[in-house]
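Running log. JK asked me to keep both predictions on one page so they can be read side by side. First protein, sequence followed by its tokens:
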Amino acid sequence: MGAFQSFFQLIKQNLPFITAITIPALSYLCYKVFPYIQPLFSPLRKTNRHGGELVAKVFAAHGVKYIFTLVGGHISPILVASKQEGIKVVDVRSECTTVFAADAVSRLSGTPGVAIVTAGPGVTNTITAMKNAQMAQSPLVLIGGAAATVLKGRGSLQDVEQIDVLRSIVKYHASIRNVREIVPIMRRAFYEAMSGVPGPVFVEIPIDCLYCIGEISSAMGMGQCLRKKLVKEGSEEYKRVIVPYEFQNKANDSFDI
């Protein structure tokens, strides 16, 4: 009991100091944590909008008239939104050509050229043209698709350390982590491409920042994972599950039915 009294007495004596330290610390903690908690309490709204629209609006704001691409699933929302903004989408047959073409546009127009390629091999195929743009000091923005943020480093389709590949070539590189970062990072990419000595920049946009969460969840099999929890032995769902013969753990070594 005496220890508790001494403890409370110590707090009472130092209450102003403790208050001065605690309130700023709690305020900073709330500032950092709130953006992650707030969406949990927000109402769900149906919408057809996606992250590609934000990218396209940044293009339009910077006077981009052409974008060059080799179409891929990771980047399709950007291409669809860019066409809706009146930007001409030029589909070529080689990722390297997208950057060469964007380089030519930047030299002729003075506006940063834009190339958009899919994840993994799509990005690595641009290395020759990106190095050429660096040597020529051409302002150029390369956008690469990427695996979903929760699947990076887990063997997802075309998951490559793209930034490490281009780090020594580009003036500026960034990997977008959520939708709220799309506009500020894209704006900075255009600024960096034109400021000082012009040159190429690279922005990596994961697929879950472009598509709606429902499509991404389906692609990652989240729905199937939840469904498996409902399929329990002896239930009606379990009776409808068809198991291939070779996985039924039967003693018979023959595969004849």
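And the second, directly underneath as requested:
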Amino acid sequence: RRYNTQHTMKSIRAIIPVGALALELIGMDSTNAFSLPPVDVISRNKNANNNNAFQLDSTTTSSDADIQSDAMFIEPLQNNAPPSTVPNGKSPDELIAIAKRFLVTSKGLGGDPDMLAPSFRFEGPVVGPLPKDDFVKAIGSVDFGTAFPNWTPQFYGFYVDPLEEGGNRVWYTAKGYGKNEGPLLPFAPEATGETVVNPPQACSLTIDHETGLITKYTIGYVTDRTVGNTGGLGGLYGILYAIGKPFPFPEAQPWKMSWQYAFFQKLGSLLSP
């Protein structure tokens, strides 16, 4: 197939600054690079400044009711009935109650080891997977209560994942803030007096329907790195960065553009007219 060179270059120029997620569009001409909704929803707006700009029309064919009922919007599992895939399982309310009970046992930092299943594993963006014994040992080695005696944990948005086949994964968002008023051994031998403000982090607890024990725990997945003062880091790495005691390796440092990505961005600017 032959491509229009002018349109192909415009596609590349538009895509490169966006990043690697749009790579699959590179090399496509502009007429095929986008799948357009009906013309009554979106119209092509050609002007002197941008021949490929798109503009939303003020009128649409979809009513609010149609939008709300669209299959793309999936509601979390709710009510007191167990998921249809596990008829004898625990209800979403029961699962969320277990998750909250686990978090409250240690202000959301770790949790009661007796609530962990033998097959438990912990996974973060960098750390893990850790089996139960390693996780309990790691949590027990950090005296967070002494370092942050007035820490304010903030957890919200609890729901049971509607797409997990087991119907047993509780998702929630975690934030929190507090002043470092004591040593955070073994990382910070003295209090720094710095206040930590966490960014929002996506977390989850997967719970066995039969035993009520937790089989998987994930934390630290930052959803907006511009919030707070942890350098966009989640979990312990973010807290250590905020108090001025970060680990020296890249995974415990704020995100920094690689030379490869910088080159990718530069290429986009060079292709611009």
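Observation for JK regarding the second prediction: The CA atoms of residues 78 and 92 lie 6 Å apart.
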